[in-house]
Amino acid sequence: METRKVQVTGGSTYTVSIPKSWATENDVGAGSEIEFHPDGDSLFLTPRTETERTRGTLDVTDLTGQELTRAVTTMYVSGFDVIELQGSGITAEQRSTVREAVQSLVGLEVLEETREKVVIRDLLDSSELSIHNAVTRMRLISLSMLEDALAALHDLDHNRARDVIGRDDDLDRLWLVVSRIFRATLRTPKAAEELGLPREECFDYHSSARQLERIGDHATKIAHLTLNIEEPLPDEVLDAIDDLYEDAVEVVDSAMDALFAEDNDDASRMANDARAGVREIDERVRAIDELLRDLDPARAQLVGLVVDSVLRSADYGGNIAETALQKSAPTP
Fold first, then answer.
1. Phi, psi of 228 (to 5 degrees)
2. Do the domain assignments include residue 194?
3. Which segments of 14-83 does DSSP mark as H helices, in order?
4. Structural domain boundaries enclosing 109
5. Concatenated DSSP letters for 52-66?
6. Hey, which residues does 109 pair with through a beta bridge?
7. Which BP terms in the Gene Ontology apply to this protein (predicted)?
8. What's the rounded Cα separation, in Å, for the pair 178 and 234?
9. pTM, whole model, 2 decimals?
10. What is the predicted pLDDT for the residue at 7?
């Protein structure tokens, strides 16, 4: 760490020198422009660049299938606006994989294709993205998936179960958008300034979005389990699962309301209510376990997995409540 003394020039202008090593590493010299970004009692400075789009290149010669898909996704989440995939000879299979990956990500489009490269560009203006809106949308999708998954289980509606499975892709796309926005705020203070949110709050949204994405995964798991059930479950078992679901949704809703609350006292109250709800749900699960003793082992195992997914969804709501409590706590 280096320190500098603030000086006053002209009677009203405060000046401070910057370390030469930092200036050299960032190509800052006489006549360079510097951007200042206030953040509470801190002031971040960064060199001003003429280009507004970040370009990244990746050699994909030896990448295929899921490895190639993950590579494109990683470049997207990392925040590159232009992604250039290079190779000694990009195959038709690789191109198809890249196009599928691009279609699964919000805002991307293949801009150029040649024998040795594929150029992908993000068409969205990052300053217009809202992490709050993305998380709100994730809340609606994940809880509707959970509701429909259990409705499909209740009626053994396999078409509805398949619809839940298909909607998981929409939730994953939003999760990747939230991750991209959050990583941008870590990389540059300008991104947080454009969002109009402190970076700590962006972290809270990112952490909560991860829990919502997991709720969607468990809704998908319930839908898959439903496809393997051929005969209706006993009414008392279904009623017990429905009661468990209602309690779990109440936990998640209370936690999300606490996360979005502007009043810290209200946020703290709702978050603590959500945490208390998680503890009460454990009692319901033990009661359901007693009902499962009357089922044959195979069906009991399937229902047990459904119950576990609903319970875990409530636990994820409890995690969001923990985040809301931290967000509402006094800031040092």
1. -100, 0
2. yes
3. 20-25, 65-78
4. 55-126
5. -S-EEEEE-TT--HH
6. 121
7. intracellular phosphate ion homeostasis; negative regulation of phosphate metabolic process
8. 41
9. 0.83
10. 72
